[in-house]
Amino acid sequence: MVTFFAQASPECSPLSCNALAEKLPVNAHCLFDSFKEAKAALDAGEFNHSEPGPFRIFSVHSVDT
Question: Per-residue DSSP letters for 43-65?
């Protein structure tokens, strides 16, 4: 989850910047394990009053080269 208050550029993740990772289930990289978990947390209002939105959900993958 990343904020886009300035519209075009990603800014920060409330999971780490606002210590929400201490109360939400994230992995060792401070990320949700799935899009479904991230969307559910957003829909449940877990990010309300953390950072100004809008929020965007990013997916992170590793690629073997």
Answer: HTTTTTTTS-S-EE---------
By DSSP bridging, strand 55-56 and strand 2-3 are antiparallel
Domain span including residue 27? 2-56
Summarize pLDDT for 13-30 with one digit per residue, the tens.
888 888 889 899 999 888
In a domain, 24, yes or no: yes
In a domain, 30, yes or no: yes
Query: Is residue 14 in a domain?
Result: yes
**pTM to 2 decimals?**
0.78
Burial class (CB in 10 A: 0-12, 13-18, 19+), 63: exposed
Number of domains in the chain: 1
Virtual torsion, Cα 15, 9, 57, 52, nearest 10 deg: 50
